[in-house]
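A student in our group prepared the protein record below, which I am reviewing. Here is the record exactly as it was handed to me.
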Amino acid sequence: MILIIRLAKKWIQNKATIKEIYEMIFLIDHYHELDLPYILWGFPDDSLIDFETRDLCFEAPYYINKSKEVNTEIIFQQGLKVWSEYYG
């Protein structure tokens, strides 16, 4: 939980790398199985009826800081690094 808080603070301050953002999302949603849309945006997961809105809750953290080059390939590559660190 301390790592999630540390990563979230970096994300809020726009200092997190793409890998750190992925790791934050991974830890909240997958590893600890918490309600990511509620934690980041204040929307309970069961209140999000359509999948597009739910998916946007997971994609939006990458696009907060527009100064970083972000695309699905970069997110995928950084995601592989995070998965290998935890399950390698």
